[in-house]
Design goal:
The complex is a heterodimer of chains A (about 350) and B (about 300). Chain A is of the alpha/beta class and about 350 residues long. Chain A has twelve helices and 13 strands. In chain A, α3 crosses α4, α3 packs parallel to α6 and α4 packs across α6. Chain A is globular and about 70 Å long. Chain B starts with 15 loop residues before the first helix and ends with a helix. Classes of the chains: A alpha/beta (about 350), B mainly alpha (about 300).
Amino acid sequence: MHTMPNSKQSRESDTDIILDVRKLRTSFRITGEWHAAVRDISFNLRRNETLALVGESGCGKSVTALSVLGLVPLQNGRVEAERIQLGEHNLQGLSEEEMREIRGNRISMIFQEPMTALNPVLTIGHQVAETLLYHRKMNKEEANKTALELLDKVKIPSASSRFKEYPHQFSGGMRQRVMIAMALACKPDIILADEPTTALDVTTQSQILALLNELKQDSGMSLIFITHNLGVVASIADRVAVMYAGKIVEIAYVNSLFAQPTHPYTEALMLSIPRSDRDIKTLHSISGQVPPIGRIPDGCSFAARCGLEQPICRKLDPTLKPIDVGLTHEVACWVRGDYNLTMIEEHANG
Amino acid sequence: MTSNTENIPMPKSNRALFLEQMNRTFRSNKLTGVGAAIFLLVVLAAIFAPLLSTHDHIDQNILNRLEGPSDQFLMGTDAYGRDIYSRLLHGARISLIIGGVAIISAMIIGTAIGIIAGYYGGRTDDVIMQFNDILLSFPTLILGLIVVAMLGPNMQNMIIAISLTSIPGFTRIARAPTIVIRERDFIEACRALGYRDWRIMVYHILPNVLSDVMVMASLWLATAIRTEASLSFIGLGVKPPEATWGGMIREGFENILDNPWLSIFPGLAILLVVFSLNLLGDGLRDAIDPKTREA
């Protein structure tokens, strides 16, 4: 078994990086004008690591995932990036045909809504087996056998008798397990999980999280986990990237982030978690909302909702800077970040 | 982890849900069952026409012309002394073959076009649907008439003509649910699994629109049989002496004052088939309605 990456260790060698995204910018055309929903974000993902993307609705989390998979609609969407490196492939340069080989095979996705993400008129077994027939070119018998093993692996009780049942005969949690089995079928390097537990009740949620964790350990794959729930993050993630208005504002190992939430937005998110271990009368809420992508202000996009706002925040957008010795905890905030002040002034004047 | 992978059950057929629903329909709505039963009888009569006939349906027997219904001639004879009953049975074959083949081919072509239009949307959809609307703007009979008049009256051309008039309807019926299904999460999931467009259309969208399409097919089969009869009536059908219902009604017209049965029996036959198909189709349509809502 692999050993878990220790949370405060310094950057590992590059050979361990399975996905490297540099300056990803995804724009959409809205009434004739192009607006960026994801603005020049960079991150990387190591083997067998779970990276959580956290933020409110409309922060660009899902768009980031769709961009990596090349599923942004071509008529109204545009994906630009310096590179999206998956192992030896730069996904930026691949044709649609080559991308189809990647999707479902090397990167697969789990969707938020298990009730609608399965085809209602096809059996569960058929849907899992289809992935194998398609990508692995198995014959029907092999595919069915492997599909059954997968259903067993995601802990669907009496899988062989439920193999030929339809999605409407399954509960939400069981359907999400089927989705996971489909995503897992071709042993992908990466699974993108887009709020996979949001539609489930709390008990089921923790079971699904435990399952994902276990499968990740077993298969050595990596996981990008999109959520707005910091409680979920704490239980599954190795590293966390906090997104706001299409940018990563803070990225850190999970322990470091929870011990020392530095960006005012991260801090506010933490205060907004309901807790049973403290006696709080009113729950903190962040006033205002994420600026719509057509009206993102100059400077730091969080400035309008931030209590610590300085004049510079309205003028210049801060970039991510490490704040710790190991250089693993990065923050983009003029007030809380670790910036060379003369540099800031130079920026402000020039 | 222990896994019991022996006795892998083969996936149940896609039609299972549909059949389940049909079963429920027949139980709850008696008229649907009646329609199905009548239509089945007509089909059996057509298949076993040579066995059920009491006389040859083409041989003329001038001595027995224009006789009324009797023991020897169950429904009487026509102006050439041919047995009406035997001719009706053989006419059923022609009507069902032309109607059936035309509707099945229209269903295949129309559904394929409709799914493609609905799935791709945009310019593709515009072009296909504009062309479709042009075809739809002709009354069924007129379009059929034009095509048969151009190609010449025979069985094959009748099939082409009737098929052509039914394609635009199927295109519309298949396109509408496709547009809805295209936006559903499981289609996005298919893309995320790297499936090709044709695979998504054939394996994931088609089974979802199939029930709608099949129900309409049963209703439009009635229309096709009427169109066939109409074209035969005005002399653009299968050539005599072969028996067709429309042709028999027309031949009967010449002697309608001497023996009205000549036109009445084929007219009743058409009525019976169209009526039974409408009962069947209406019942099936009601059956799938709530499902479309629920999904």
